[in-house]
Design a protein that fits this description.
Oligomer: single chain
Shape: globular
Mean pLDDT: 87
Radius of gyration: 14 Å
Strand order of the largest sheet: 2-3-1-4
Low-confidence stretches: none
Length: 96
């Protein structure tokens, strides 16, 4: 399933700036950045739960905001994309 993760981490303190970097690092372990604080992650149910738990361990719920959206398939009916950056197609084979 495709999950959209969006977050707003308070960076007024050095601890907040560290949280911001750690949240982004967790998201990079599961998907790709599509905007500064938005990631697309192709995960199964177990991975989604791990992602959620790892992110909740990093954020400060009193100061930060975290949202996870499940994108319902078929994607071509639920996703419109405009502009310079185009997301990676998770369904196609990637050769590295």
């Amino acid at each position: 399933m495709l999950i959209l993760v969006s977050y707003d981490v308070s960076t007024e303190t050095s601890a907040g700036r560290r949280r911001l970097r750690r949240v982004a690092k967790v998201c990079l372990n599961y998907g790709q950045r599509v905007q500064k604080s938005v990631f697309e992650c192709q995960v199964n149910l177990a991975q989604m739960e791990m992602l959620k738990n790892e992110l909740l361990d990093e954020i400060n719920e009193a100061e930060d905001c975290l949202r996870l959206y499940r994108i319902i398939e078929p994607l071509e009916k639920n996703l419109m994309e405009f502009g310079k950056f185009k997301a990676v197609d998770f369904e196609s084979t990637l050769i590295v």
